[in-house]
Write a structure and sequence with these properties.
Elements (H helix, E strand, L loop, with lengths): L1 H14 L14 H22 L6 H12 L18 E3 L4 E3 L2 E3 L3 E3 L2 E3 L2 E3 L3 E3 L2 E3 L2 E3 L2 E3 L3 E3 L2 E3 L2 E4 L4 E3 L2 E3 L1 E4 L2 E3 L2 E3 L2 E4 L4 E3 L2 E3 L1 E4 L4 E3 L2 E3 L7 H6 L4
Parallel strand pairs: 1-4, 2-5, 3-6, 4-7, 5-8, 6-9, 7-10, 8-11, 9-12, 10-13, 11-14, 12-15, 13-16, 14-17, 15-18, 16-19, 17-20, 18-21, 19-22, 20-23, 21-24
Length: 235
C-alpha cells in the first residue's frame, strides 16, 4: 500500500498538483494513474523524436529551390505531333467514277474514270482515264489516258502505256508514251522506252533500244544565255 501511495504522489507532482502530507492520501484509481502515465510517456517520446529530427541538407535546399522555380508545362507550350496521313488505297476490285482529291499519297490498283489531284505521291498499277496532278508518280503495268503534271519525278515502268502530255521535273521512261514531254531537268529513256511525241528537256539520256518519234529540244541551262550559247559557234 505504501508503494502505491508513493506512486500516486509522484504522479501528482508530475501534474503540478499540490499534495498535503498531513492529510491522509486518497487512493487514486489504477485506471486514472495508468492513463496519466501513458500520456506523459507519449509526450516524452514525441519530444525525443523532435530532438532527433534530421537537419535539412544542402541537396534538399537546392531541390526545393528548383521545384519552386520550375515552370509547369502546359498544353499551349507543347507542339502537337503531326502524323503523316495514311495513303488512300483504291483496291483492284474498285471502280471510281468522278474526281478524286486528296492531300496525301494515293495508291491506285483499280480503275478510275475521272481526274486525280493530290499534294502527295501517286502509285498506279490500274487503269486511269483522266488527268492527274501530284508530287511524284510511279506507274507500273498500268494504262493512263490523260495528261500528267508532276512537281517531282515520274517513273514509267515496263508494260505501262500513257496517252497524254507529261510535265515534270524529271522522268524515267521504260514503257510507251504517246504525247509531248516537258521536263525541267533530266529525261532518261531506257531500252524498252517508246515515245511518240516531242520532248523538251535540259538533259536527255537514251539507252540502246529506246525509240523516239518526234522532235527533241535540249533547253539551255538557266546559267546560260542564248548569246553565250551562240558565241560557242562564233555566230
Amino acid at each position: 500500500m505504501a508503494t502505491k501511495n508513493n506512486f500516486s504522489k509522484a504522479v501528482l507532482d508530475l501534474m503540478g498538483l499540490p499534495g498535503n502530507e498531513n492529510e491522509p492520501e486518497e487512493r487514486m484509481p489504477d485506471a486514472a494513474v495508468e492513463a496519466v502515465f501513458d500520456q506523459n510517456k507519449r509526450l516524452d517520446l514525441n519530444a525525443g523524436w523532435e530532438a532527433e529530427a534530421v537537419p535539412e541538407t544542402e541537396f534538399d535546399a537546392e531541390r526545393k529551390k528548383f521545384l519552386y522555380n520550375a515552370k509547369a508545362v502546359t498544353v499551349s507550350n507543347t507542339m502537337p505531333i503531326q502524323e503523316e496521313p495514311p495513303a488512300t488505297v483504291i483496291s483492284r476490285s474498285m471502280v471510281i467514277v468522278g474526281e478524286i482529291m486528296s492531300s496525301g499519297d494515293i495508291d491506285i490498283y483499280g480503275d478510275v474514270k475521272g481526274s486525280v489531284k493530290t499534294d502527295g505521291d501517286i502509285k498506279a498499277t490500274g487503269k486511269i482515264a483522266g488527268d492527274m496532278s501530284g508530287n511524284s508518280f510511279t506507274l507500273n503495268g498500268c494504262t493512263v489516258q490523260g495528261n500528267i503534271t508532276a512537281h517531282g519525278h515520274v517513273t514509267i515502268g515496263l508494260n505501262t502505256v500513257v496517252v497524254g502530255d507529261i510535265v515534270a521535273d524529271s522522268i524515267k521512261v521504260n514503257g510507251k508514251v504517246k504525247g509531248n514531254l516537258t521536263i525541267a531537268r533530266m529525261s532518261e529513256f531506257l531500252e524498252n522506252a517508246l515515245l511518240a511525241g516531242d520532248v523538251r528537256s535540259q538533259t536527255i539520256s537514251m539507252s540502246q533500244g529506246a525509240k523516239l518519234h518526234g522532235n527533241v529540244s535540249v533547253a539551255l541551262d538557266s546559267s546560260q544565255s542564248e548569246k553565250e550559247f551562240d558565241s560557242i559557234f562564233g555566230i
